[in-house]
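We modelled the chain as a single entity of 715 amino acids. Its sequence is:
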Amino acid sequence: MDSTPFPSSSSAFDLVSRALGRYIPRGGAAAGAPGHRAARQPVPDSPAASHQEQILGAVNLNQDLMITRCNLHAPVFAGLDAAAGKPFVDLLPPWDVPTVTRRLRQVVETGEAHVARIQRLRRSDGSELVVSLSILPAAAPEEGLTVSIIAMARRLHLYAAETAIGTSLDIGETAQSLAESLLAWGDVAAVDLDFAVWTGEGVTGQVQRRIRLRRAALVPDRAWPEGYVTLGDDLPSDASRLLAQAVLRNDAPQTIVIPDREAVERVLASPRVVRALVPVDRSAGVACIPLVLDGVPPVVLGVAEVWRRADCPFRDSELFDLQELVARTAHHVDLARQHQREHTQVLALQRRLLPRTGGDTIEIASVYQPATPDSAGVGGDWVNSFPLPDGRTALVVGDVVGHGLGAAATMGQLSTEARALLSAGLAPDEVLEHLDETVSLLDDAESGLAAGYSALGSTCCIALYDPVSHHVAMSSAGHLPPVLVTPDGHADPLPLHPHPGLGAEFALREPFEVHTFVAPPGTLLALYTDGLVEDPALSIDEGIDRLTDAVSTVHPWDALQQAARHVVSELAPVRQRDDVTLLLARMIGYRKGDTATLRLPARYDAPARARAQVFALMSQWRTRDDTRDKMVLLVSELVTNAVRFAAGPITVRLIRAGNRLLCEVGDTGNGRPRLRRGDLLDDGGRGLSIVHRLTTRWGVRWTDTGKVVWAEVSR
């Protein structure tokens, strides 16, 4: 066993230098580090290690990013001027200085290493060396950085590039990583993708006569001449056609090389296309490599272009390397395309579920902020508000477990079912009972609907606002409590009874309770999902308190949409891991002069009394004669049915809403009126037939004391 002692210093620079099998020379570069004694020469790790094969080097920097020591004495690093006291950025191409400087300072400030960046370094003669750069923080008590440098051998370069390209599912980042890796073979690298690939749409193996390319990546980052196609721009149609023809010769994707500027101009033919595709005067030669998915026939996703100076023609070995790298990474581009497609579909579904308008009796504002791209995908948050046919407004917010298409499918199903059940007149607790059963059925593996996804534990909160009585009925299935702000500015979370959520085991199921409260005009209600209030540094109660404080500052005169954005920007982190959803509802209600309530005993004279009072009210509202006659006959038929089939007092409520009139007749009966097809001489069913002909729509909803039959008539 070798007993040679190691130097006492444990800095990152010394650790890297020991791995070199070399020594830190006395004087010279080492002399730039006062107080550091020279390290003794360690024993090489392997007898086969030699000075000629060394590809690893190290440079030590102070906090001002000046070189203090270096160990770049292997032949592969010849020409790199890394003398002590010089700025490290002098080794970089000018266009890479801002990016690398930002990375260096980031490591100084955070202490987190930045590993394996593919980088080019400038030699004194103007040539460049491709290396893998790792930035390591200095070990305490030292300050500064150690930059380890690995000269990229062919296979190592391909491996490192492929590893870097496959780290993101964002199609833009994937294309950018590919372009940065391709830059090792040229002066400018670009990746142009088929527009269908860029947007996440499906791709086909059939060769298309017309193709639309969009620039997905371009390196280096610099000021480009006017007319040149930069990041995010569509290539001119002529340029797209020429590139497609070039790489699809004989309907087979192939790499092509145009060696010099004269040949480039001859092939491109048009000065406009030359300006769009040729980056600079010095970049005269180009290699175009198709991004191809293997198959029969192969599918072309786009084209990668590498431009070089006229005095540096492409060698055959370099072209083989380029083709191998692009071939290895094309599937990463396709994976990013598939992720983009799923992300776009889910996002479109969620945005479709967002409220469009609140109507005349309630003002609605909503904010949906999807999770950051590095999360598992778009989540299952959903929020909706919609007017019910009887004049009330439903507010619904939910959070489906999981991310991606499985969560999106469940989210869409639950949202649609909730809307249908609420429109049919069911109470919030009854709707949640049906949603609870739906989630349980979706989780049944035998049904074949689960498909590896479980929605158990999803949450939902439903609120129904009555703009006449100004009452809100609310039920919750495991959802976080909404925040209520009264007109005087007092804000508190609503005291909803906790519930385990949708799809809980039978033993854990509890009845869904209905919480009813008064919401006078000017009341503000905030419904949200957990992404808005969750913070690793705070408890969930503290997060809700922060939301309560933020919502309480919304002034009754504030524009509600702007207020909602302000609340989200104040509470939500910049890079959240979950979707953020907020729904603000400001209660307005009907004006007193637009509603009237009549209470009648369930006696034989109730229809006549109702006709007289409705006739007087319609005259007061100055309705047309035909509309007045319709409303009188409609109320008469509904009250007659209530007297005939129900008991107890009868309540008639009339509402004037824009260009329509609403009529509601409530009684204590529990039978459901049904429209039937009958003969003219039948005694039953004619009343509802008249109602059906007089109205634009009608329906029934159930209450704690009976039912309400409602109907709508156009004014």
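As a brief sanity check on the tokenised model: Confidence is low (pLDDT under 50) at residues 1-9, 21-52, 373-377, 446-451. The longest strand covers residues 283-293.
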